[in-house]
Design brief:
Helices cover 32% and strands 25% of the residues. The chain is an alpha+beta fold and 155 residues long. The model has no long low-confidence stretch (mean pLDDT 91).
Length: 155
């Protein structure tokens, strides 16, 4: 475990290879399919392809270890609430860097982004088997809503 100083900041184009590697590690951790081979191009376009990107990403950087985690988010709509919210799509820290209070820093960066966008709520999901994440979110004061997420090809 490292003891260097941690900074959380908006991702920059030079961070893209590190973000892609974290996404690959995150998918492996969540026992999900590996990301597509062209993920760097897709994310680069979504994160840095326009003046006001739809996808936002924060990275956690540790002095002596480089980028150790990320959180990504995008504005979404709730028909039931008739309002926009900020959807935190991903929050991940590399193994060995959890417990350093970096997770709360990343979540606070996402909350601050919601405020900048004039949004009053952040929503996200986590696998039901991820007890550590659920405990973490409970400690933050988050409330859970039980739902299942489905996927269906548009083709």
């Amino acid at each position: 475990m490292s003891t260097g100083a941690v900074r959380v900041r908006h991702a920059r184009p030079a961070d893209l290879p590190h973000i892609v590697q974290l996404v690959v590690e995150h998918a492996r951790y969540e026992q999900a399919e590996q990301p597509p081979a062209d993920l760097a191009g897709r994310l680069g376009s979504l994160l840095f392809g326009t003046a006001t990107p739809r996808l936002r990403c924060f990275v956690a950087e540790l002095d002596d270890a480089g980028i150790i985690g990320y959180a990504s988010c995008a504005p979404e709509l709730s028909t039931w609430d008739g309002a926009e919210y900020l959807a935190m799509d991903c929050l991940f820290l590399r193994d060995g860097h959890r417990g350093l209070r970096v997770g709360p820093m990343l979540v606070e960066a996402v909350r601050a982004e919601a405020r900048v966008l004039g949004l009053t709520e952040v929503q996200w999901q986590t696998p039901s088997w991820n007890a550590d994440a659920i405990r973490f979110y409970d400690r933050l004061g988050a409330r859970a809503k039980e739902k299942r997420r489905f996927f269906l090809s548009a083709g």
